[in-house]
Amino acid sequence: MHDTINQAVKKIKASRSLVFLTGAGVSVPSGIPDYRSLSGVYQGIAAPEYLLSHTCLKEEPDKFYAFVKKLYHPSARPNIIHEQIAALEKEKYVTVVSQNIDGLHQAAGSQNIVNFHGSLYHCYCQNCGETVPVAEYLKSDKHFCGGQIRPDIVLYEEALDEQNVSKSIQAIATADAIVVVGTSLKVYPFSGLIQYQAPNAELIVINQEPLYLNYPHLMVTEKAEVVFKKISNKENH
Question: Could you list the residue ranges forming a coiled coil in this record (predicted)?
Fold first, then answer.
């Protein structure tokens, strides 16, 4: 185990251009539950997939709003993973492509981020298009113009932002190392991004459960915070 951790740390430190593909597991140490644990929130009423769908937003806005408010964790702070990814930007070209909608990569100081599924922290009125502060949205989803406010996240049945997809593909195609952190890579098209890696690029996977990919990769079956503490250790330089 320690051998794979050390290999991953060396490969990350040796790279010049890095892409981090991050998922819910990155934010768990910050106190944000992963997606699967949300399945019990409305148990017996509807699946989370429906509650986070365009149909629910349009047809049952009150139910949508009640569920989405549970996704906000205002007291959550970036952890060692977010912090070290941001710190690596000072010495390498780093792109973060994240499935997460919690804003913690930004809070840690990362600059070059693709929020693949949008962000809870950008809200707007669907009627007039005005941007609305999150604090106001958490008090009410009704705008003064009469429209309904929503967060700028990609719901089920909605299309991804094409610019986000193309930027992600370009970053992966030009990186010499791709690091998958805290995601099972089961959600498409996010999971399909690794197919665009350059032939000589290193693929490193850090996840508590082993992933079985059709590409050569270094699998580190460990909590991501353990690996990132090693990266921050000065003696590894």
Answer: none
Q: Mind listing the pLDDT tens digit for each residue in 153-173? A: 999 999 999 999 999 999 999
At 93, phi and psi to the nearest 5?
Answer: -85, 115
Nearest to 215, CA basis, from 190, 192, 235, 237 = 192
Beta carbons of 21 and 178 less than 8 angstroms apart:
yes
The structure tokens listed for 164 are 């986000």
Residue at token pair 């941007």 = 131
pLDDT tens-digit map of 205-233: 999 888 988 899 999 999 999 999 998 87
In the chain, the domains with their CATH numbers are: 1-30+78-117+159-237 (3.40.50.1220)
117 is catalytic: yes
Measure the CA–CA gap between 126 and 146, rounded to whole angstroms: 10
Sequence-distant (6+) residues with CB within 8 A of 46 are 56, 63
Among 54, 73, 82, 117, which one carries the catalytic annotation? 117
According to DSSP, residue 142 is labeled B
| Angle at CA of residue 159, ends 178 and 103, nearest 5° | 55
Residue 95 C-alpha from the chain's centroid:
12
